[in-house]
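residues and backbone:
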Amino acid sequence: MSAILWELLRVSERAANIAWVCRQQEALFHLLIEEKKEIIMRLYPTEEEPADLLSKVLNGDNLRLCTRTFVFSDPALDSVEIKILQDILGIWVDPIDSAFQYIKCSAGIKPNQGISPGGLQCVTILIGVHDIQTGVPLMGVINQPFVSQDLNTLRWKGQCYWGLLYMGTKIPSLCFPSLQAAAVKGRANSECSLLFSALISTTLSRVCGKCIFWAAGAGYKNLCVFLSLVDMYIFAEDTMSRWYSHAAHAIFGGGGMVDLKECLERSTDMRLDLPQLVYHAGNEDAAGVDQWASKEGLITYRSKQPLETFLNLLLQHLAPMDTHT
């Protein structure tokens, strides 16, 4: 298991390196950007073959994009000895989430209580692994290439987060704060009893009051939950694809991602299991990429108690209930 996770980390770091270099070189940046439509991913048995293809695209320039070796050190991952059969694993990959921010925006957007509303800091690389029989997330990697920039060299420093969730074993990367830290981190406004990010409706505004934050990129917003900057991320529309949520769902064992409509329709009985998202089966009434959208909205949460409190408050303000308002 650790060998697979190490490879996912290396892949994410290689992708982050490509993102860094492309932003630093204007000609290369425009060369590699094209309209995002349907992308086909092809796997090769060796590193040399994709390196040769990229070298042709770059006209032989910047081969360091293909040949750089990445070394990680994480004692938590070194200790993982769980065995999972490789033939039951499915993988969702988003090679560059928040592409608009990557292409159009800069680093000069000021954060709000540690949360960047836009800019390169919202760009992430997402890799999620699930059990193809149950759809339950098993492993995840979120790589944030643009965390901070050296104003003298203009070089970027990134951060990579990972997590393992299997058969009761929950192992997050060491860079995640503890649940105890969640009670105090990011709460500069003492009036906030609950913090939420990217809430867009008037109904949600009535529930959350002043505790609403805005940010770009689904991967980044989920990361804000896991870093204790907010308690939850609520997405009440029907356009969230599974590859946006998969990696984050796997890296955070203490919380989860649940279907918003199902949460509101179920009994408020705390003993009932929450309707966690799964990743192996598409929507039966849709085709193409639409079959992998979370049609009923979703909530990312760090701990169950604030989630239950929020749902109870939301139900009080919905008359009649409408999760898409």
Q: What stands out?
A: Residues 2-24 form the longest helix (23 residues). The first strand starts at residue 89 and ends at 97.
